[in-house]
Specification:
With 486 residues, the protein is of the alpha/beta class. The protein is 32% helix and 20% strand. Strand 8 and strand 9 form a beta hairpin. Helix 2 runs parallel beside helix 3 and helix 9 crosses helix 10.
Amino acid sequence: MIRSADKEKVEYGDFQTPLELAERVCQQLIKLGIVPDIIVEPTCGIGNFIEVASSIFKTAKKIIGVEINQQYLQEMRRKKQFIQDERIELQHADFFQFDWLSLISQLNGNILVLGNFPWVTNSIQGSLGSENLPKKNNFQNYNGLDAITGKSNFDISEWMLIQIIQWLQGRDAYLAMLCKLSVSRKILNYLHSKNLNLAYCATYRIDTKKYFDATVEACLLFCKFDSKSKNYFCDVFNSLESLEYYQIAYRNNLLIRDTDSFEKLSKFYTVNSEIKWRSGIKHDCSKIMEFRKIGNTFINGVGEAVELEDICLFPLLKGSDIAHSRTKTTDRYVLVTQRFVGEPTEHIRDLAPKTWQYLESHANDLENRKSKIYQNKPRFSIFGVGAYTFSPWKIAICGLYKKLEFRLIEKIFDKPVIFDDTVYFLSFEDEQVALKTFQTLASPLVINFYSSLIFWDEKRPIKSSVLSSLDLTALVNLEDYVRSDA
């Protein structure tokens, strides 16, 4: 359970930027030749960025800090530097309610928006019962299932940065904000997808362990805006001091981590792959739907010994099993209630009465699953299931691990293997086709191709969209597979 003090710290992203880091950021901006007329910090906290910026940017005419915490504002107003510097203007306001567009439109000259937004997602805020959130909307415009199964989860800072970008469009301005590396790429993607103005973009890694006692990969995101440029690339520096960098950029509307490697192998890139990588089963109720087999007894996640028919039980491999090559045997099983998404489940009552009785005894747990995907669906529904789920041969990889290692999976105990939803896989009816495809995927050419696309700092670096971007049919004869998966 999160203590109330810790809850508030998480809820408001209250991880103050140390003076040392604020000074290093501002010094880097000086090296970049930034001379702002106006400085705005939209969530200024205890004012460390404002304190440093007021000392370093002597020619700035106005420095505006906005903060929701009244106590922090009172502390700042008592500081000698804040009292003596007439350029500093502090306002008590909620970022999500404040009329930023009106404020920005009144400011003349070059604007620098500076600071450090909360490093927390909307789903975490929601779990805390927080109201420190933007109004709920699908601002990334995800469609259908993507919008309700996790892709619509976003970092609060991502939403806030997008608002800033919208304010600054069409004028000379700068953005310098600390954020997760993954968020910085999402911002570049937003600019590209919306065809917005961007003159220059760079990221500089920061030592989050040193400054915030955190393990997340983060950076200073710097953007320069004007009224005409559309330069959708980003120079990536390993630190604020580094002079060396590599560049990420778009090719075929895809953000590439290593453009040199990708261009050498670009002929194998495809937008419309005939072969579809699937993800494993999603049920959101592991304590009820998953079991350990001890001897001849199945034990569920709440410690109950249960007796079930074999017809709906299948051997289960989780992402960690795939990543660590534990694929030949397992004591894990999963209850598979459907053969395809939306299939009625009442037939289980007749085919497997003990299984149906078990499901009914845990109906409250299954019916209280929070995801909208289960609403108005048959009782005890699951997702990520189809004919491909029950194929005898599969090639699998876990999306969460930072390594490109594919596994060839065959039946366990003469039953097709089921994966959890952290695993991506191809399915095959023919062993030889599976083996040939596996050998191709393990080749240096394929590893180099995928490596050019994958950003390893992300929570789930390996994605189905990346896996599907390789034209496997150009590398191996998969006609039999294509027919079997149609």
